[in-house]
Amino acid sequence: MYPARPELASAPSSLSSPDAQATGLVLDVHGAPLLQQFYYPAEQMLYVQWFGNLTVESVVTGANAVLQTQEQLRFPLLLNNKHASTGDWSEAMEWLEFEWLPRAYVLGLRAFAYVFAPDLNNQLASLDFVARSSQLLSIRVFYDDAVARNWLQKHLPQ
User: Are 113 and 149 in contact (CB under 8 A)?
Assistant: First the structure.
């Protein structure tokens, strides 16, 4: 992971909070932003914003970065926003289901809010991921990150 770029270092306005902590920017193989992470300690939530055309390799890279953050922070809530991304990353599905998801669960992940990308291929892959994950996590898709955040707060462990 790399330090956040100044133009990407602030949390989305719908999620602005004085305690939001930028946990780093992950770049793709071409040096372009792949994902930006923000941690909200009071909410025990990680916000992940994805960028660009996603491939199998970039999804695995990004998901591994989220796992690294999960190992450090042990957050139970994840808001995964793919609104600024495109691409068919469905070939990463087996790895996500059988490698990433069990590891994230062991590290404490319990609820996953998924904000759709406008790209249809990305949406289809997202729906497949949601179906595969629903046996282990509370997971739901959204079109708006503020609505997703509200839903997640209902899943905050007591």
Answer: yes
